[in-house]
Amino acid sequence: MAIAPARTVPVQPSPQPRTRKYGADGVSRRTMVGRIVVGVLVAILFLVPYLVMLVGSLKTRSEILAVPPRYFPQDGLQVGNYLTMWSTPETPLTYNLISTVVIAVFATLLVLLVATPAAYYTARFNFPGRMAFLFLVIVTQMLQPAVLTAGLFRQMLVLDLNDTWVAMILINAAFNLSFALWIMHSFFAGIPKEVDEAAQLDGASRLAVLFRINLPLVWPGIVTAIIFTFVASWNEFAASLVIMSTAENQPLSVALTKFIGQYATSWQYVFGVSIVAIVPVIVLFALIEKRLIGGLTAGSVK
Description:
Shape: globular
CATH architecture of the largest domain: Orthogonal Bundle
CATH superfamily of the largest domain: MetI-like
Helix content: 55-70%
Order of helices and strands: HHHHHHHHHHHHH
Radius of gyration: 29 Å
Strand content: under 5%
CATH topology of the largest domain: MetI-like fold
Distance between the termini: 73 Å
């Protein structure tokens, strides 16, 4: 009996899936382009006010007040504004800049000196009233110098510190201490206690454990506290306006208001001083950025 040959059914080739081009990190090019566009738009949004200040500092006062507005200098770049503003009769800007630097730097150092051991102790030891202490510390963050200016002024008079750098260093340190303590407390609490115990078994003292073991691990928190305290002290205005009465002792934030009069305002100098006040903060971020990123990524690779 003959067997009929089996029918062969042609196999239809399966449709090839559409291939998408991906970058090195697995993100499609369309997504990458979208992120770049959004990033550029956000950067422009934040940079426009600073560009307006920069361009305004290179104009004459008449150009700034011109109607319709002139977006770019028509009479040439007035670079001389940055020279003449230091010798204006309104305020001695050189002394104001020195005052601002001294107050911000020493207030930051004082905060680190007090907050670092306090954060370490509250993170490592359970003592009676620990949570109440931390709660009171965070409550002080709700109080601003503008609300307490009258009391601060009276207190500095009693201590004979009114109109001095020491007064503003203490005030700025006091109002930034709570944030620095809390941020470093969270970093210290994230380090296992077994790390300290292992170091102590090897013969390290408590101070050696703090400075040689813990501080390198909490470096991102220290950097955050430095940036926050320095910027807040650099920009502080309300307490400085009340406490500092001598023109030479006032910081830049107060000296800036001297160019704003009742009937006329030297806008070219207002913009120029604002640009000068921004530069040290930018330099601080540029110097500390690599250390911050390095500390954040130090434990990400095993």
